[in-house]
Amino acid sequence: MAIVNVTPDSFSGDGVGADASAAAALAREFAEAGADIIDVGAESTRPDAVPVTLEEEAGRALPAVAAVRAATDLPVSIDTQHAEVAEAAIKAGAEMVNDINGLRGDERMAAVAAAGGAALVAMHNQRGRPEGDVVENVLGGWEESLRLAAAAGIPRERIILDPGFGFGWTPEENLQIVRRLDELAGAGLPLLLGPSRKSTLGLVLDAPVEGRLEGTAAAVAIAVAKGVDIVRVHDVAAMRKVVAVADAISRGRWRAP
Asked: What is the mean pLDDT of residues 73-96?
């Protein structure tokens, strides 16, 4: 899953702002580099991000989704926590909703995803929630997300689960999520992980955002080996190679020529 941020304040410094043509060009570049899904986001969700109105988010997201949809045949995901934006994005061509609150934020999100026939990435967001065992917290959050999805009529085969690396966890807990991914794989649905360039990796490496490529590669390789099915990344070409080798080693997905 390739990240296309149409924001001016992305933590990773890769935002293209409200420029739909730049978003489309980046999506084409990612497609050529081997991406499988394009994830378009128009609201920064880092802890210190400046809040944006629904009008601002939609004004950035919808032209970008339409432009990316026209520029590539890959599935397009809308990264939003707001049902109103998700609904409009689905009409503009998005086929997946990537919700950082796992349906537990906007009460209309489940119904919107169901009505639009969209796939769903349900993330566990630990922000503001009680401390406890990492795996137990994630599984508990997913249980509630799946309950909401079932009540709205979203088929289980359209759901992907994300433990929320970087969302409300301490650095040590973020590392523990990756270390214990095999315990989360028992949920029985595809797993997604988004460690790309995040601050925990920067702390381990004592590196700024632009120096976290190798750290991201390590997290991605371990995630694949422990059962993750989708990785959400900025550096598509490099991570495609990491995934290819990790798959070949851990899952035997390679045949000698």
From this structure: 97
Q: Are 187 and 138 in contact (CB under 8 A)?
A: no
Cβ-contact 211, 205 below 8 angstroms: yes
Active site residues: 198, 232
Q: For residue 79, list its beta bridge partners.
A: 41, 98
Calpha distance 231→81 (Å, rounded): 19
- The per-residue pLDDT of the chain, averaged, comes to 93
Q: Which residues contact 16 (CB under 8 A, 6 or more apart)?
A: 4, 5, 6, 22, 23, 26
Beta carbons within 8 Å of 53's beta carbon, 6+ residues apart:
none
d(CA 115, CA 87): 9
The strand pair at 159-162 and 119-123 is best described as parallel
- Band of residue 186 on the pLDDT scale cut at 50, 70, 90: confident
CB 72 within 8 A of CB 31: yes
Distance CA 183, CA 59 (A): 40
Q: Between β-strands 119-123 and 2-5, what pairing exists: parallel, antiparallel or unpaired? A: unpaired
Would the pLDDT of 129 be above 60? yes
pTM above 0.85, yes or no: yes
User: Rounded distance, CA 40 to CA 2, Å?
Assistant: 9
pLDDT of residue 45: 76
Q: From CA 65, how far away is CA 41, in angstroms rounded?
A: 9
Which domains does the chain possess?
2-251 (3.20.20.20)
Query: Residue 68: is it exposed, middle or buried by C-beta count within 10 angstroms (0-12/13-18/19+)?
Result: buried
CB 6 within 8 A of CB 24: no
